[in-house]
Structure formats: C-alpha cells, structure tokens
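sanity check this fold:
=====
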Amino acid sequence: METTHQINKVELRTLRMEDYDQLAGSFKRIYGDSDEFWTHAQIKKLITIFPEGQVVVIADGKIVGCALSIIVDYDMVKGDHTYAQVTGNETFNTHNPNGNILYGIEVFIHPDYRGLRLGRRMYEYRKELCEKLNLKAIMFGGRIPNYHKYADTMRPKEYIEKVRSREIYDPVLNFQLSNDFHVRRIIRNYLPNDEESKHNACLLQWDNIYYEPKRDQKVERKPTVRIGMVQWQMRPYNSIDELFEQVEFFVDSVSDYKSDFILFPEYFNAPLMARYNNLGEAESIRALAKYTEKIRDRFRELAISYNINIITGSMPYVKDDGGLYNVGFLIRRDGTDEMYEKIHVTPDEVKCWGLNGGNAIRTFDTDCGKIGVVICYDVEFPELTRLLAAQGMQILFVPFMTDTQNAYARVRICAQARAIENECYVAIAGSVGNLPRVHNMDIQYAQSAVFTPCDFPFPNDGRRAEATPNTEMILVADVDLNRLSQLHTYGSVRNLLDRRTDLYEVKLTPHPRTPLPRRGE
C-alpha cells in the first residue's frame, strides 16, 4: 500500500493524557460497538491501571498509531467471550494485575501512515512487554473485515484457511498471521456491530516461549550449560581402582571448569576385558558386565563429590532375564541415577557378543534442562532422536566407539544432522588408541565435538567445539538453551514446527517392558 507521508523520525512511547485531544481528533475506533472515540475518562483509567500497556507511535512529532491493552486471566478468555465481557462493558474493571494474559483491546494506525510497518512496532513492544511481565500469551479477538465478501459461499473456518493459504487477502488476519499469531477458535457475536466480519472474530494468540508458571518455589534453570567431553585413551588397567584413578582425574579436571555435565565414551571400560582374553568373545564381554554396577556406584560418589552430572558412556549389562545389553547411566549431582540403553546394536555386537537391543526411549530431566542420550549406532536412526525431540530434548549426548575413519564419519555426520533437524545441541565423545590384548577392540578413532543448529545465533557451520583427532584430551564448551527457544519460534527455518504432521508422523510402538530403575527416589 502506498503511503502519503515520508517519515524522518519515528518514536514509540507510552500513552500520556496530553495525547488525548490528538487521538480523539485523528482516529476512529476499530473495536467496540460504536464509532465514538474512547472517552477522556476511559483513557485516563487505562493509563492509571496499566500505564505500560498503552503505547503510541509518533512520526515526526505527530501521533500516528496507538495500541491499548489490559491484563486478564487465561480462564476468562480461553473460550467463547465477547468484547463487552472482556472489557467489563468498557469499564476495564476486568483488568487483573495478577492475571497471565496480555489482552489487546485496540490497535489503530492513521490511514496515511499504513504500509510502513508501524503496527508491527507496537506488536513487537507488546511481545517484549509480555516477556518482561512473565505473561503466558498475548490474546485478542481479531476482526476479519473482508469476510462479508465471501459469507454467502463459505463458513468462517473455510475463509480463515484460504487466508492462511494466501488464496484470499484479509488486511487484519494476514497481518496477524505474519506477526506469529495463531488462530485458536472462531468467536461468534464478538462485536455485534461488526457487519464486515458478520459478527465473527478470530481468537488470536501469541505464546510467550519464556513464560514460567508461578510456583511456590521457583526452580531456576541455567540458560547457559557447560559440557565437558572426555576423549578417552584406551590403555591397560589391571583393576577397577586403576580405571577410576584415570576417571577421577578427568572428572576433577572438567569440574574445575565449573562444568555441568561430563560425557564419557562408549565401552570406555573395555581395557578391563584383557584379563579375560583367554575366554571367547561372548564370555569375556559377560565377564566385563560384572563390573557395571560397581562402576555405576563409583560414578555416583564422584558426581556428588565434584558436583557434576555424569553421563557414564556405556558398558555391558546383564538383566534379570539373562539378556546382555549395552547401557549407561545418567548420574545427577544429587546422587540420583537413571539407566539408558542402546536401542540399535550393530551386527558385530550381535555376532561377537550376542547383545540385545534395548526398549526404553525417553528423555531425562536435569537441573540444566531436558536431555537425551543415544549410544553410537543409535544416532544413525533419525526416528529415535525425533521421538526424544518431541519429548522436549534440548541436549543430546552421544557416547560412541569407532575403529575407522569411515565409521567415525557416520557417527559425526549423523550427529550433526540430528542437531539441525531436532533444533538441539549434540555432544559426542569417543575413545582413541588401541587395545592389542582385547579381542574385538583393536583400534579406536575419534574426534569429540559439540554440534549446534545452523542459524544466525549459532556457528555458521554448526560446529560449536571440536577436539584434536585421535588425541587424549578433554573438550569443554558452553551451550545457550535460550537460543534454542528463540530458534523454535523465530528461526530462519523451523524444522520442528514446519513438519507436515498431516501427512506423516513418528510415534512410539507400545512395547511391554519393565520400567528401568531410578535410584535415590
């Protein structure tokens, strides 16, 4: 739309009473049951009860736009309601400072200044105010002024769908959709005098992704999480004490950097199999499994002592049914722990060791957000991590063990893909070196790393940090969870939001299983 004024300076500020005469002389009301402008007393009351909710746009010293709002409780507006009800018949007695919804009651732009995105400025102000006040959402009843042209041939629902698909243009609804509002429902008789909309309105909502429900005891989650990864050197150990001398060295080192997590590789304890090299491969791996519960208990002591969440890599584990599995443990710094399982075992693990694939697919809550853990080969199956993403996973940990560069490349490339498609961080850690006296563990190749989505708040190539290949070391990197929240809503592309769930879906298949134990509760 062409404008008739060129603007040299734009200002956005809160509404003042001295602005009233200019507003009343320049604008007609859009909402409400009459064309008369808001009275002096009504504007004064809005400024008195909620001053930061009333805002004007000024172009070269002239007020050219205004937005008015109140705060209400969600239960009041989540269903059918009218404009008169939500405004208390325009008395604004419905304003509730302890409510959780910023409700828009008026927005107008002078006709000569439309098409300059001035309305968008006021909406951005509202969004910032919603976040600042920790409100759940912005809501309002949106008019559909072009609906009267189509009312004889389609219902409001069909009209909205055609506006959404750009088959029909509606000046109000198109603007709201482009500003990230979504239609919750149709409201009948919202404005009885709105003949253009045929008395219909769309209940529109913009969700505050940073909203935190009020609790008696608020749990603080760190926005920045520090991850430490151990690129583990395979070397001979004669006992579990010798093994944990090296383990504690790494836990100590990583915790000195105030890390929140430390990640160990898959089968990091394999050197202990050397004493069983006289046995067959299947017998030696089951002998190694005898150490697993002791290793878990030793890790718990370290998690508490060094105040760090430990992801223990993986190790063989014999369940009560006699089956052999590849498992690991999330051990929180408070001493509680949970087991995770390798779901997809490699053909070699089946052939040489007789391993079984696990059945538990779930995320874990921590004091640094929700995490997922998949073991090595698992990361090559995108369905698995998509299920974890659907459960709210923010960081994916991947302990791995690969012997050749092409095997490593599969893990690395798939891990980076999982970060992009699931809009999460992915940390991988593997082992280096060789174990000449252990069957099926000859050589190791690894480069540990942290991957991110590829968008403006993140590294261009999605690589947050990388270790030196094939060298024993630790890698420490920070990840910002707030950036993930921004990406989910404002990303250049939105891989989770834009999925065509009307065409396909990924879902868990019901599987009878005994819940895995969680200790410390």
About this structure: The longest helix spans residues 240-256. The chain has two domains: 10-207, 224-490.
